[in-house]
Structures are given as structure tokens and as C-alpha cells.
Amino acid sequence: MTLPNLLRSAPAPGASPRRDRRSYKRVDLRLTGRFLTSDSDDRELLTSNVSCDGAFILSSTPPDSGQQIVCYFDELGRVVAEVIRMTPGGFAVRFQTSHLKRDKLADRLTWLVNKDILGLDEERAAPRFSATGQACVILSDGTQLQCRLTDISLTGAAFEALGTPPYVGDRVHTGNLPAEVVRVAGKSFAVRYLRGAEAAAS
Prior knowledge:
Structural class: mainly beta
Low-confidence stretches: 9-22
Order of helices and strands: EEEEEEEHEEEEEEEH
């Protein structure tokens, strides 16, 4: 199924291709997560609207304007951002990402928006089967995370973490297989196995 892309709109004629805020369409989307300030303060966040280039975050304890923060979105993973505008109810940020990362954000946000509008289930490349048992997931820094395996397929697996789960987008190893975290909900998270060039780059 081809999903309508709601995040990318064509730049205005004569606009700079490098960065034109009008070329990134914002959509109303509530995403939860946390953000870290330069003082290492850890605060919860909730977005009001978001695009692949930035977001408006609702917060009663916003950081200072111009400050760089690190956002950890439950559905998007880690994104570095700059606070560009303050309001009584929150603050706006501009994401500081590469073009590749921005394209990945646009694809993921498009899926999330269409999922809510069309009532779609998460797409999977192979059927999954219920599973039980203890598992150890190796995080990107080498930490061993003890988990309970909940289901598995040829293309990925799902776990319930006994500690703090990884973030969406993190690279991990499950057994001897490299994988990427694609979904986090509370203590539960799902991974897809990496193959070929993706695995070599992990």
C-alpha cells in the first residue's frame, strides 16, 4: 500500500533547496518522550504538532530559547534540536539533522499520521509467532539488557525489557544478529533484523 505523504510539500518557486521552513508541512500529532538539556535535566515532553524539520513541544518547564536539547521520542528515537521560539504553553524546536535522517523522519511521521487516519496496523514483512523465554539484548554501548522474548519472526522480534528499554532507532544485537529498534511502548520494544549492507554498517 502506498501511503499519502503528508510531511513533504513542494518548495515555493525560487526557494532555497537547503532549508525553507515552508517546504516541511507540520501535522497535528501527539508524540510522547523526554528531552535532555545542556544541564542534563531530564524532562517529559508531548508534541502538539511535528514535521520532519521540527516540532512544537508542550511543557510547563521549557528550556531557554536558543538552547540545544536532545529529544528522545518514543516513536521516532533520538533527535538533536534547537529551541527557536517560546510561548506560554511550550516551545518550538528545529531539528538539527542530516538530509538522510530528515528523510527517515518524514517516512516515519507519514506512517504514523496515516496509521491514525486510516486505522492501519504496523506493517510486517513476515508473520510473527508468540514466544516465551529469557533473552539478552546487547545495546550499542555493549550493555547487556535482560529481557523476556514475547514474539519472533524471520525479520524481527519483540521483547519486554527487565530494565530500561532502548530507544527507537538504536542499533542492538539479539544473539549474534544485528538489529534496529523500530518500536517502543513502556518496557516493551520491537526490533527488525539488519541484513547485508545495513548489518555491515552496524
